[in-house]
Write a structure and sequence with these properties.
This protein is of the alpha/beta class. The protein is built from nine helices and nine strands. The strands form two sheets. The protein has a five-stranded mixed beta sheet with strand order 2-3-4-5-6. The longest helix is centred in the last third of the chain and has 24 residues, at 248-271.
Length: 290
């Protein structure tokens, strides 16, 4: 069974960038449209990982092939932020995760107690802001790492694969789609699974195989335009901002350069100083090319 383990809907809240956080949503994709699009692109199971929210379940809980998940925004002891995908949860667990998300030791303890499958998303990306070297020690305490994110460059994903292999962690993949155009462009497959429960059990056993492609400047720029147009469609008064869209390619270019620089910095500081793990899951062999 195949599932895109990182995807957003209109319930992910407002954009986190300054100024845009007053104007624009993270995503404008209706949950039902996300569900239909993922099936059209070959997904056997559907989950939605909105930021600290499970509202998409109101529309999708009746689907036999849907399971509840979220992307938890965590506060690390250093004061930095981390996004953690948590899968196969119930509403009560969502509430408990939100209570603990600003205290990572408590959150990690709860995840272990509940045996919830948790994934460190985009560990070599600047998406959540600054980073401290000690953060990566916390990253290694989670069972899994996102090794293919379809919105990040191959270098970012390659560093994540190496980090996971060095720390005996399971590798998974997802699109991190904020638009329907990107939905299902990366995924995780568990051969032989026949239900969401068997799929998650297979992930725990390291049986997941990751497929799809890394991101690109063109893909990111296209999605920025799509989100901007959806914003204007929702609030027609914002069409007055149309001239600013000419700056979008420059913004995404600056972002792409920054992402590469960020990834290279932490690759030198973390990966080049580590000895490769002996044994453990060979995360590189989990990858499948679409």
């Amino acid at each position: 069974m195949r599932c895109d383990l990182h995807i957003h809907s209109l319930h992910s809240g407002m954009c986190t960038l300054p100024v845009l956080n007053r104007l624009c949503r993270e995503s404008y994709s209706p949950p039902e449209a996300v569900y239909q699009t993922l099936h059209q692109r070959g997904m056997d199971l559907v989950t939605v990982t909105d930021h600290d929210a499970i509202d998409a379940a109101e529309e999708l809980r009746c689907k036999a092939d849907f399971f509840l998940s979220e992307e938890v925004t965590c506060r690390l002891p250093s004061g930095t932020e981390l996004h953690v995908g948590v899968y196969g949860i119930c509403e009560r667990q969502h509430q408990e995760l939100q209570k603990r998300r600003n205290d990572l030791p408590r959150l990690a303890a709860y995840l272990g107690e509940q045996r919830l499958f948790a994934v460190v998303n985009h560990p070599f990306s600047a998406l959540t802001g600054r980073r401290q070297a000690e953060d990566y020690d916390w990253f290694s305490s989670f069972p899994a790492v996102e090794i293919v994110n379809a919105h990040l460059a191959e270098a970012n994903n390659r560093h994540a694969r190496q980090f996971a292999a060095n720390n005996f962690q399971i590798g998974v993949g997802g699109s991190d789609a904020h638009t329907l155009a990107s939905a299902g462009t990366a995924w995780t497959e568990v051969p032989g699974a026949r239900s969401a429960q068997e799929f998650l059990a297979g992930l725990w056993r390291g049986k997941g195989q990751v497929g799809g492609a890394s991101g690109s400047y063109a893909k990111l720029t296209g999605d920025v335009f799509r989100v901007a147009l959806a914003m204007m469609k929702e609030k027609p008064a914002y069409y007055a901002l149309t001239p600013l869209l000419t700056l979008a390619p420059l913004f995404t270019l600056i972002n792409s350069v920054h992402e590469r620089s960020f990834a290279r910095k932490w690759e030198r500081m973390i990966l080049e100083s580590e000895q490769p793990a002996f044994g453990g899951p060979d995360v590189a062999t989990q990858e499948l090319v679409a």
